[in-house]
## 1
Amino acid sequence: MARVTVEDCIDKVENRFELVLLAGHRARLISQGAPITVDRDNDKNPVVALREIADETLSPGDLKEDLIHSLQKHVEVDEPEADLPEVTADASDAATTIEAEGEEENITFDRMSEEDLLAGIEGLVPPEKSDDF
């Protein structure tokens, strides 16, 4: 029985490190239940992933995009920026005035002394430790 080697896949994915990343990602997908595109032949998931790449049953570009998407925690969506309201500050009464399209709305932020802040921090209770981490 012929074994898949890196040389069989290197002409499809030129960078060996990238090949390992793609094959590892595909092997994890197979472990999670993704359908395979080649016969298993009693091979383990990493070997099946390499055989799929070598036989070009999966596009390396699509596999790379899927890997990148799986690693992203926050996908940024391009949205048009709205006109921001004009912001002015009045230092005499420690209030912030926001003028938006002819309406005036006063927002006052509470001021806290350094001693009050330190007393509040000292009163915080640390979170309980769990066995999950």
Note: The mean pLDDT is 78.
## 2
Amino acid sequence: MDLDLALRMDRPASLTDTSTSEQRRIYEKWDRSNRMSLMIIKRGIPEAFRGAVSEEVTDATTFLAEIEKRFAKSDKAETNTLLKKLISMKFKGKENIREYIMEMSHLASKLKALKLELSDDVLVHLVLISLPPQFSQFKVSYNCQREKWTLNELISFCVQEEERLKQEKTESAHLASTSKDKGKKRKNEAAKDKGPAHKKQTQTNSDDGCFFCNMKGHMKKECAKYIAWRAKKGLPELPKAK
């Protein structure tokens, strides 16, 4: 429908008595597009923004330029923010690694638009630095190679490594669970074999046995050998039982 014609085409020369039919057709087409564009733009922005632009502005392109001035920002500040975010990014393993690397690539593209271009080699190293210790073997493998990876190759290899780590984690968890169940079963079987007699004997030994001479039938504080030993060491006598 050529509604954006006024945004893509400069305002044609004003019509005069000597204007040709083709010039009149182009001007009328542009004028309609300009009016429709202004209506759509003004309808899609808050009233406070509409009031910030003079009513004398009747050109859609000029209107957008005036609005843009109200949102002027510092390229240096934005570059600093994007670069800081890119450098501080860390892969935590919760998100998909392909999406994570694409997000870093997206930030690099924004920096490129701000005239700060990062090469693929730098971006590959930034990605590798941001990976957690689980990827240590993967990093060593890259450092031992002479060839450099492109960003697409890095994404492919990282996805493969992520799948391998997930598989190893699942197998380790299954093995640990199996070993734990076996140990518990053996312990229960051993306790069952000893029976209640062993339990009763153990309890009797702990209750009636003397911890000093290992003889049964008296407690440590009643042991003659223990009392004699304390006297020899010059220790005070034990209080007698009431």
Note: The two ends are 111 Å apart (CA to CA).
